[in-house]
Amino acid sequence: MTPDEYCQQRAAASGSSFYYSFLFLPPPRRRAITALYAYCREVDDIVDEVSDPAVAEAKLAWWGEEIERLFGGQPQHPVSRALAPHLEPFDIRRDRLLLVLEGMAMDLRQNRYLDFAGLRRYCHCVAGVVGEMAAGIFAASDERTYDYARKLGLALQLTNIVRDVGEDARRGRLYLPLEDLQRFGVKAADLLAGRYVDGYLPLMRFQAQRARQAYAEARAALPGADLRAQRPGLIMGAIYATLLDEIEREGFRVLHQRIALTPLRKLWIAWRTWVFGPRFGAAATA
Q1: Strand, coil or helix: what is 260?
Q2: Which residues contact 209 (CB under 8 A, 6 or more apart)?
Q3: Tell me, what DSSP letter sits at residue 251?
Q4: Residues 147-189 pLDDT 10s
Q5: Burial (0-12, 13-18, 19+ Cβ within 10 Å), 260
Q6: pTM above the 0.90 mark?
Q7: Helix, strand or coil, per DSSP, at residue 174
Q8: How far is CA 126 from CA 102, 106, 182, in A?
Q9: CA 259, CA 251: separation in Å to the nearest integer?
Q10: pLDDT over 60 (residue 27)
Q11: CA–CA separation, 264 and 49 (whole Å)
Q12: CA distance 30 to 252
């Protein structure tokens, strides 16, 4: 199996919405974004699947060393070998790849966020900086496009947090800021126990509105000159914004189940967005 095949397998097997945004790209850009996505999956799986924090820390440290080997021309892992040809053509930077690792390390060292400012920093590390790298792969001719990508990364991660409240709670993690829980009278213990208490629905509506505001800010920040090139990111946004709507229609019943879109629906949204443009944010059309 070649490094590119390894990354392709990782992306396809995940079932992620991100995979659908890659389908319409020309081969060089598709290989680059697939390798980047595989890197994110590799390091995220360390946090989610390795039960011993010391072992997880060691594995993340190995990836830090591997990034240095990658930029030194001696990558070892199939994912970093697949990334190697794309570093210079698509401006994939060492500091951005390392910042993703920093975000993963945050998951090992804390499982609560006091306020949105702290959560926003985490979201930037695990999603905003990935958005910046993705924007470079898709082709960005305007510096403002990177601002759009950071905002879109925040919106996508906030949607993930809403979707995964129950799943994260079962792992002992809460990403909803504690200041928000206090504001709506919801105790962390209630979420950890999977209880739909009074205050839960207003709390989740507030989180959804925060995510929608991020989508609107992202869409407004994207320069028209880069609209066509950035369609893969807009596909991600359209799929995740639709997922957020679906979760709200289901009454945010995410403490005991995972709400998801079907692959066919994701493919339809991807095709529609590629052909007709985005349907989320300030400039969305019905």
Answers
A1: coil
A2: none
A3: T
A4: 999 999 999 999 999 999 999 999 999 999 999 999 999 999 9
A5: middle
A6: yes
A7: coil
A8: 8, 10, 26
A9: 11
A10: yes
A11: 28
A12: 34
What is the rounded CA–CA span in Å between residue 166 and residue 43? Answer: 22
Query: Using CA atoms, how far apart are residues 15 and 23, in angstroms rounded to an integer?
Result: 13
Mapped onto helix, strand or coil, the DSSP state of residue 50 is coil
| CA 80 – CA 73 distance, rounded (Å) | 10
HSE (side-chain half, CA atoms, 13 Å) at 178: 9
- Cα Rg, the chain, nearest whole Å: 18
Give 279's contacts (C-beta < 8 A, 6+ positions apart): 238, 241, 272, 273, 285, 286
How far is it, in rounded angstroms, from Cα 147 to Cα 219? 10
Pair 154, 214: CB distance under 8 Å: yes
Contacts made by residues 245-253, CB under 8 angstroms, sequence distance 24+: 247/162, 247/163, 247/208, 248/205, 248/208, 251/201, 252/162, 252/200, 252/201, 252/204, 252/205, 252/208, 253/196
Which residues fall within 8 angstroms of residue 150, CB to CB, at 6 or more apart? 124, 128, 129, 131, 132
273: Cβ–Cβ under 8 A, 6 or more apart, which residues? 231, 234, 235, 238, 279
